[in-house]
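Translate structure to sequence.
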């Protein structure tokens, strides 16, 4: 008896190769898009990080003047508060890109990559984008009104302008929405493939 081995059909191999190529191409496209968005958040984070320098200097100056020369300033506390507010708001997108926002890790870390992707995708679509979209609209009106009125801090003897700080609200929200697109794409990819793309863009931060 002669046993013949059935060879795989050539068209089946071609279809598998095409499917594999399409998957690789889609992965590369997603990585390119998310890397570009991540670069914006990383760049903005590095620029915003520079605000910590004048903030610390103003605090040090106030301490020296107050305790060494008994001559406290009327502006140092306001400057440090305004800078810290901007630092806090504008660094939110960078924090999201680095996956450093608070979440319930005791549950989240036990899930598989696919489950994390499914949950994250649902939450980004149903809560994150609608919520931030509303916040952007309200925040822009709030900030623009402050700009038009040239609003100041009336409780301070120095009375500095407060509108630059309020303007960071819509700017920070817009940056969060942009970074959210990257995070949603990563989550959708994880949900469909079970693979995590968050490590693929870490090399762009040097």
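Result:
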């Amino acid at each position: 008896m002669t046993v013949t081995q059935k060879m795989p059909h050539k068209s089946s191999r071609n279809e598998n190769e095409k499917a594999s190529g399409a998957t690789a191409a889609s992965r590369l496209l997603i990585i390119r898009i998310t890397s570009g968005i991540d670069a914006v958040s990383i760049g903005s984070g590095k620029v915003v990080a520079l605000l910590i320098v004048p903030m610390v200097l103003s605090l040090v100056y106030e301490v020296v003047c107050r305790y060494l020369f008994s001559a406290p300033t009327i502006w140092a506390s306001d400057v440090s508060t305004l800078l810290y507010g901007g630092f806090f708001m504008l660094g939110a997108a960078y924090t999201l890109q680095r996956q450093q926002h608070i979440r319930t890790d005791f549950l989240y870390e036990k899930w598989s990559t696919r489950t994390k992707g499914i949950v994250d995708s649902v939450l980004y679509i149903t809560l994150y984008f609608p919520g931030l979209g509303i916040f952007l609209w309200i925040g822009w009106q709030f900030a623009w009104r402050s700009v038009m009125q040239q609003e100041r801090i009336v409780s301070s003897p120095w009375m500095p302008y407060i509108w630059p700080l309020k303007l960071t609200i819509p700017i920070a929200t817009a940056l969060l929405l942009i970074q959210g697109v990257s995070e949603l794409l990563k989550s959708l990819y994880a949900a469909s493939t079970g693979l995590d793309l968050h490590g693929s863009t870490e090399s762009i931060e040097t």
